[in-house]
Automatic annotation (TrEMBL):
PANTHER family: LYSOPHOSPHOLIPASE-LIKE PROTEIN 1, LYSOPHOSPHOLIPASE-RELATED. It comes from Virgibacillus salarius. It comes from the Bacteria. This is Alpha/beta hydrolase. GO terms for molecular function: hydrolase activity. The keyword Hydrolase applies.
């Protein structure tokens, strides 16, 4: 079970937007962002199950940017299973989920794509990292991914955003990598770029 908010959308042909906050955030944080992306879609906003010094996250880390791989794998499975349950409870299409994640939330969304076949129909990843290296990815053909990255992001260097794009593309995903001349922050500009991308899906 994961603490979450579900808001039923007005148009059930739309995807369900899965909102995943950054470290220290909550399931409330990205709700305003979802209404910018698609005000008619269902919203499933989930709080991370880990606490790091009181700050919610989706998986443990050993240091800044160094992930606890065993926990990442465990928590990715937990989230994937939670999506199965939520789709059943709230009666939405399990195969029509688009994740919208920021930072730690973008990392667990990327991890879903790295570990499972068709866990998501697409993903908007704001400032993600490469969640794991040295594994072969499932076939991601038909999956659309938007990555927003900052040229001066101290947490995710520019080469890592390129590396993530490459890994996803090599597995068959359609990837759009959007750059901001900014750091790790989530900017209004990149949210607008994400919305334009989403509208063309
Ligand atoms: C992470 O731990 O997922 C990344 O370092 C991003 C963050 O949450 O700071």
């Amino acid at each position: 079970m994961m603490k979450h908010i579900f808001q039923k959308g007005t148009d059930q042909t739309k995807p369900t937007l899965l909102l995943l906050h950054g470290t220290g955030g909550t399931e409330q944080d990205l709700i305003p962002l979802a209404s910018k992306i698609d005000p008619e879609a269902n919203i499933l906003s989930v709080r991370g199950n880990i606490l790091e010094n009181g700050m919610p996250r989706y998986f443990k880390r050993l240091a800044e940017g160094v992930f606890d791989e065993a926990d990442l794998i465990f928590r990715t499975k937990e989230l994937n299973e939670f999506l199965d349950e939520a789709a059943e409870n709230y009666q939405f299409d399990r195969h029509h989920i688009i994740a919208v994640g920021y930072s730690n939330g973008a990392n667990i969304a990327a991890s879903l794509l790295f570990h499972y076949k068709n866990p998501l129909k697409g993903a908007i990843l704001h400032h993600p990292m490469v969640p794991r290296r040295g594994i072969s990815l499932p076939n991601l053909s038909g999956i659309n991914v938007f990555i927003a990255a900052g040229t001066n992001d101290p947490i995710c260097p520019a080469e890592e955003s390129e590396e993530l794009r490459q890994l996803l593309e090599n597995a068959g995903a359609n990837v759009k990598l959007h750059w901001e001349n900014q750091g790790h922050q989530l900017t209004l500009n990149e949210v607008e770029a994400a919305r334009n991308w989403y509208q063309q899906l």
